[in-house]
């Protein structure tokens, strides 16, 4: 799921507390005009009022910048969206890091083009001023992929800095909820089939949301026909995909019928996904440690491509595998 905004908010002064301060000042004045300490109490009130005015001005400025971000996103005005970020901005989300305004906007644009009906909304929850030209901000971003769909919420914290007259985003970190973190992979749910061009094997894969939506459970069967003097083989794989509550990253575990296992972490740029796997090899294998990167590219509502690259056994490089082109069968 792409981060669509880094918003800002402000804890406003409590009116009840301000009222008590003014009431206390009035009672002191009525009791004894010459009372010791009266001047210091009364002198504090204008300072409180000035601080409140500064807070209100900051709130309004950041709220205006946030509304402009939402409007630019929903209208797909990417030049205006780019103007919301500093040149060297950093966006951290789901274990991935994107550096630079152009790269961030390109990532967001790719996600929006893949989800043309998506709409964004933001609720501001907190801000901390860092001098006159910077503020640490927090909020809740919600978006819907299609009209009438259940909104997906993520929390974020950002750094906005004042450049000239514009409050821009310099750093942003998204902390999705566990259930919502899997929404970016919701397209995987279903049954898929592909043919391996190298071995002629048929791969059937089925994914479903389980455990109250907190987990994606996958089952994969790999059937290779007898070929080049080798016997036919059948391999079963169980896959678990689960978001890490502490980091917001999505992790994956695979176990197969040879005794091999591996753990991976998803990274995404908004349009494709990488899973970096490291694990142990099959029972009786001559090597101990296997590593590879699986690249997953959704190419439509019913198709996707998966390819294993950067493969190695005990640190020794292996050739990339041919891409597998999956089609949804139900």
Describe the structure in your own words.
By secondary structure, this protein is an alpha+beta fold. The protein has helices at residues 15-31, 38-74, 78-82, 101-114, 178-181, and strands spanning 85-93, 96-99, 119-129, 134-144, 152-163, 166-176, 190-195, 202-210, 215-224, 233-243, 250-256, 261-268, 273-280, 289-298, 303-313, 316-317, 324-328. The protein has two domains: 15-176, Nuclear Transport Factor 2, Chain: A, CATH 3.10.450; 183-328, Lipocalin (Beta Barrel), CATH 2.40.128.20. A ten-stranded antiparallel barrel has the order 7-8-9-10-11-12-13-14-15-17. A six-stranded mixed beta sheet has the order 2-1-6-5-4-3. The longest helix is centred in the N-terminal third of the chain and has 37 residues, at 38-74. Residues 1-43 have low confidence and may be disordered.
The residue fraction in helices comes out at 10-25%
CATH fold-level assignment of the largest domain = Nuclear Transport Factor 2, Chain: A
Gyration radius, to the nearest Å? 27 Å
User: What does the largest sheet look like?
Assistant: 10 strands, antiparallel, barrel
Terminal residue distance? 24 Å
Which H/E pattern describes the elements? HHHEEHEEEEHEEEEEEEEEEE
Give the domain tally.
2
């Amino acid at each position: 799921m792409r981060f669509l905004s880094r918003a800002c908010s402000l804890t406003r002064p409590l009116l009840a507390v301000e009222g008590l301060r003014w009431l206390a000042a009035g009672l002191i004045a009525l009791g004894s005009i010459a009372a010791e300490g009266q001047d210091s109490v009364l002198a504090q009130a204008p300072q409180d009022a000035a601080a409140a005015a500064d807070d209100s001005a900051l709130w309004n400025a950041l709220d205006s910048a946030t509304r402009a971000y939402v409007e630019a996103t929903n209208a797909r005005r990417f030049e205006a969206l780019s103007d919301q970020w500093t040149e060297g901005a950093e966006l951290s989300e789901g274990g991935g890091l994107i550096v630079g305004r152009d790269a961030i906007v390109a990532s967001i644009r790719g996600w929006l083009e893949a989800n043309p009906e998506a709409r964004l909304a933001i609720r501001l929850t907190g801000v901390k001023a860092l001098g006159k030209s910077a503020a640490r901000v927090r909020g809740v971003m919600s978006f819907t992929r299609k009209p009438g769909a259940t909104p997906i919420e993520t929390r974020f914290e950002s750094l906005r800095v004042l450049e000239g007259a514009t409050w821009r985003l310099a750093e942003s970190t998204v902390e999705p909820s566990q259930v919502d973190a899997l929404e970016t992979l919701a397209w995987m749910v279903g049954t898929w089939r592909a043919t391996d061009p190298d071995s002629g094997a048929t791969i059937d894969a089925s994914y479903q949301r389980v455990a109250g939506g907190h987990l994606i459970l996958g089952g994969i069967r790999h059937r290779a026909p007898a070929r080049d003097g080798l016997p036919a083989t059948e391999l079963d794989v169980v896959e678990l995909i689960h978001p890490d509550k502490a980091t917001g990253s999505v992790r994956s575990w695979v176990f197969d019928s040879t005794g091999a296992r591996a753990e991976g972490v998803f990274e995404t740029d908004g349009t494709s996904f990488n899973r970096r796997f490291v694990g142990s090899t099959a029972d009786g294998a001559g090597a101990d440690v296997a590593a590879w990167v699986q690249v997953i590219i959704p190419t439509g509502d019913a198709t996707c491509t998966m390819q294993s690259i950067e493969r190695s056994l005990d640190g020794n490089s292996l050739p990339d595998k041919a891409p597998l082109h999956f089609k949804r069968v139900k």
